[in-house]
Amino acid sequence: MKSLIETLTQIPGPPGYENKIRAVVRAEIESHADEIRVDALGNLIARKGSKAGNGKRIMLSAHMDEIGVIATHIDENGFVRFTNVGGVFPRYAPSGRVRFLDGTIGVIGTEKITNSYKVPPLDKMFIDVGANGRTNCPIKVGDVAVFERPLTEMGGRLVSKAMDDRISVAILIEALKKLKKTPHEIYFVFSVQEEVGVRGATTAAFGVDPELGLAIDVTRTGDTPKSITMEVALGAGPAIKVKDSGMITDPRVVDWMVRIAAKAKIPYQLEVLERGGTDARAIQLTRSGVPAGCLSIPCRYVHSPSEMVDYNDVQNALKLLLALLNDTGVFQMS
Amino acid sequence: MAKEHNQPKILTAQMRLLERLTNTCAVSGDEGPVREIVLEKIKDHADEIRVDALGNVLATRHGKGKNRPRVMLAAHMDEVGFMIVYGDGDGLFRFDTAGGLDERQLVGKPVWVGADCIPGVIGAKPVHLTTSSEREKSISIDSLRIDVGPNNGSKVKVGDRGTFATSFQRIGKSMRAKSIDDRIGVATLIELLKHAPPNIDLLAAFTVQEEVGLRGARVAAYAFDPDIAFALDSTPAMDLPTWDGEENVRYNTKLGAGPAIYIADGATLSDPRLIRHLQETAEAEGIPYQLRQPGGGGTDAGAIQRQRAGIPSVSVSVPARYIHTAAAIARVDDWKNTLSLLYAALSRLSVDTLSR
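ok -> structure tokens follow
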């Protein structure tokens, strides 16, 4: 699974430009799904199983896109002005490297800094791609780029750009491959444009019209020096979301996930994320409403070029997801 | 593609229509006066016309032949403005803004209030009576009043909308008016409906409440459920020289550089296939165009794209300086080229446009 994670994290896929990562995911799952389609916004939707007995129509969603930047202007000296596509923190940007979709590498520089305690906004930064004039700059307005940072393993931890949310894409791919029999009609959705406001999951959820929705995404942690106050820690198991700023998880879904984790003896943590949201919000609010939840992978330094997860958490998340999908009782609606 | 006789053009009649549209007051939620003009102009040019529950005008014109894509075009009828919230008596009224207006733009401006365009002014303290420290600060809306005079005070009531009292003026190659955003889109869409190319089903949505959060387009897109959507709007041009002589790197768009095609704004990542279709069309037809600088803001495309199971969308805007203020400036040539680009792009659309 580690080599799959490495492959997935290294492919550029900024919001709206997920075609390369979609092709890789599609090739991985093609022979394991009963049906595959790509919707009008570019979501990759794979079905496995058909409803039998108490089975439900379930939508699982992991987003393919990652945060990125987009060129807004090429100045007369060939420097590229840019803005964010998704939540790029200015503090993580300076001196980082980015890769445009055509392969061009750039370094992020800043205008002169007069107060070193204040992070300049992105419009006081530029990307240097080695050009010395507008005419020989390979980048044009509208070109998109992502952070450039390889995957590294340290201890039991994996660090890379785009761990958010390729780690969940990897888990969904593995789950689809390992799932042999299911009483459910399961739609594995690899969604687009999550980082700009869960847009892909919004249309995918309308199209799938599920009876139960689960997003798989990363969540922040509270386990680093003087960090935010948050119970979730790396290595303590996958997190079952109770609430974030976009969704209050259906309590029946939380109870069901907790019950199955306990039964399968999989470590888990309960998650209350004060800022952030996932595809689960879009699923919950589609059509006339859907019970929804989220299985989270604890991740340090989210939305930086070095997002860190614990490999045991990843494997336990996969185990828990499979246990949930194999549960014939699912959760009780009443 | 050969130029056909059906090709829409901006001539005197179209300029007069834009004049009439921009001189009309239709602040978000109160679009009736513009809707009346739209209905009058399109009544003989659509197979079906209806006004939906929110007030959108939805007009359908069918093409001919097989495999016609269903193409939604949206232009919003509403404009930013004011709403009367309290009468202080003697023809003085407290007000709030409707849609994105900079409070610093308000003081000292003549206004029109209500459906009958009662004239008034957002009063300002004369310079004789202000102190130097007062002149350094902007004035909050709470301390401003709209003054319509005692005789007209009874004709204004709480809830009435108001706009800046700016009459349309043609100034050589330019047009100066209020509400160019988005009456220029409305006028463009009327022309496109009248000259709809036969290869598509044209679904025209003259939308409401765009300026308060793309509300009309959302339900219009649900009703039409189109294959493809274009939002026709107006976007700021901040192409003025910088005060310090540095290169202006944040102009958004430039006047005279043609229609502005959107790649990314705060609400939409335009469908790359539709961006390419517009660029290829412009290049094939020799129509100038520009790419709007990616950034914030939003158009009806933001609401349309996310409707139902997803609708590939893109926006095209006429650039205009000073929009959302008392008077905007746009270029006649940019309008002409916007209409030409959209007509040509629609004429070249097929069900295969999205399969590439």
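Chain A has two domains: 2-66+161-326, 68-147.
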